[in-house]
Amino acid sequence: MTASSSVPGHPLALSADDRAQVEAVEQLARRGPGSLDTLVAGLDATSWAVRRAVVGALARLGTPAVAPLRDVLSHRRDSEARLAAAVEALVASSGDVEGLLEPLAEDSNPAVVCDVAQVLGRRRGRRSVPLLARLTVHADDNVAVASIEALGRIGGGAAVDTLLAALGSGNFFRIFPAIDVLGRCGDPIVVPALLGLLSDPFYSLEATRALGRTGQEAAVPALVGLLRRGNDALVRGAAVALVDIHEAQVQRFGGARAVQGALRSDADVTVLGRRLSQAISGADSAEKAALARLLGWVGGPDAAAGLLKLLDGPDPTVARAAASALADLGSDADAQILAALRDGDSARRRVLLPLVGRKAVSVPDVMVCLEDRDASVRALAADTLSRIGDPSAVPALFARLVDEDPRVVQATVGAIQSLGSEGTEALALQAARSPDARLRRAALRIIAYFGYPRGLDVLLQAMRDSDERLRDAAIYGLPYIEDPRAVDALLSAAAHESERTRAAAMRALGQTEKRPASPPRCWGASTIETHGCATTRASRWGS
After folding, report:
1. CB 26 within 8 A of CB 1
2. For FRET with 414, which of 11, 29, 127, 484 sits at 20 to 30 Å CA-CA?
3. Contact, 380 vs 353, CB < 8 A?
4. Cα separation of 91 and 68, whole Å?
5. Are 77 and 69 in contact, with CB atoms under 8 Å apart?
6. What is the DSSP string of 376-420?
7. CB within 8 Å of 438: residues ≥ 6 apart
8. Which of 200, 194, 170, 171 has its CA nearest to residue 182?
9. What would the pLDDT profile of 74-102 be if each residue is shown by its tens digit?
10. The predicted structure's pLDDT at residue 13
11. Quick one: three-class SS letters along 132-172?
12. How far is C-alpha 325 from the chain's CA centre?
């Protein structure tokens, strides 16, 4: 019983009656085989929690409990809940289940034999393989399918041989589960048999999926061939299978390029890109994500166009896969990305902006995004312009310094500082004299970052402003101006009536190596030298 079972009000909490019954089951289990009849009767309990306790108790009792549970399977089949509980107890039993249960495989009731096959398969005992192999050719299809699935759980060479034989049975209902199980076994020996089914229209799609699940590189050439000649459903199935094989190879060997190499060595990758793009219509999310990855590996203009179709879907997993694939395409996708950026909505721009290449030709289309209604897009556009590194974007960035969203202003200031330009100083000085306090603050940060000597006058003017944030921005920049007047201004600010301004000034003084134009006059304290600047221990300055 979990801890949550005893917490009142918890969704998994047991009622008082259930707790009492579970405790009674535990007491019966401690008495041993003498309680078997009572415990088996507990398989009919209406509470799943009580049935679970009964299943655990019977499993722990081992071999003595197997015969009564076997009798439930053969003679008491009027309750699905009871049957399910009996099967679970047999699967988990520590006793000799196989020895007592295998004779029941000769029962005349196919449903009983199906339960036997299920138990034996879930126990994964090798001794049951010969029996289950015989049952795969049972007259009843349900028994045969249950045995095929059981062999798939057990695995091993003998099981695989039997499953391969089932492919030649000619029975539609048995071949399908055999294909599925063979694909999941991961044994390379099954690949030729599955490849042989690709030409059969009844089984080609299921065989394609199974080949992907094998994770075997030997299946790659045939699957690539399906991309060119198959219908849309087969193309989608082959795409998923190729991605499955790639992932399996990466997990096994830490890196694999077999799928990419096979795609790019195809005689006409343009045809592959077109077929993959055509198959997008009607694909589910998993298929779209696989198609996106293959399009990124194939490359070319058709691949880029197909990936752009996948960016607008409701599933973010598909959009991320398409964006990643577009990034893999590199310059092959630049023209399509810029066109989609120019004409797209905010959601599409958020995905595309990180993919824009570092080329000056991209700047005009990215600058359009600075006017997007979504603040996150505007901030991304500023970051992208910074990454491109073309100073021609600086004037447009200055226009965004008055954006109502702080994230955009932060990104814009960072972009201007990153780009620099011959015109940045003039634009910053002009903005620093603006009546708009937001623009002035941002401009002061830019002047401070570059340490423009011509910016000293606007910084000193801001020091006298009543806006505390303006004073902070100016104080931050003064240590970087090579002029003694900057130190004088900081020393004066250290006596300001605002505690915040005084603290900012003292921090700034610690960052400068310049001396003031005239020694400061102070009272009640001795001066000390810090970084070559006269400072004081006093809490304020006197006349």
Report:
1. no
2. 484
3. yes
4. 14
5. no
6. HHHHHHHHHHHHHT-GGGHHHHHTTTT-SSHHHHHHHHHHHHHH-
7. 401, 402, 409
8. 194
9. 999 999 999 999 999 999 999 999 999 99
10. 62
11. HHHHCCCCCHHHHHHHHHHHHHHCCHHHHHHHHHHHCCCCH
12. 15
DSSP annotation of 281: T
Q: What is the C-alpha to C-alpha distance for residues 252 and 259, in angstroms, rounded to an integer?
A: 15
Let me know: does 163 contact 151? Beta carbons within 8 Å. yes
> What does the alpha-carbon distance between residue 475 and residue 460 come to, in Å, rounded to a whole number?
9
Contact in structure between 503 and 510 (CB atoms under 8 Å):
no
511 CB-near residues (< 8 Å, 6+ apart): 479, 531
The residue with greater pLDDT, 117 or 12, is 117
Using alpha carbons, select from 304, 191, 315 the residue that is nearest to residue 245: 191
Q: Minimal CA–CA distance to 357: which of 377, 312, 383, 387?
A: 387
Section 232-257 average pLDDT: 90
| CB 101 within 8 Å of CB 128 | no
pTM: 0.69
The Cα–Cα gap between 361 and 287 comes to: 34
Spatial distance between the Cα atoms of 22 and 5, rounded to a whole number of angstroms:
11
Q: How far apart are CA 475 and CA 470, in angstroms?
A: 9
The values of phi and psi at residue 7, to 5°, are -90, 115
Tell whether the model's pLDDT for residue 9 goes beyond 50.
no
pLDDT digits over 457-481, tens only? Answer: 888 888 887 888 888 888 887 887 7
For residue 513, name the pLDDT band (cuts at 50, 70, 90).
Answer: low
Cα distance between residue 123 and residue 106, in whole Å? 19
Which token pair is 472?
């902070």
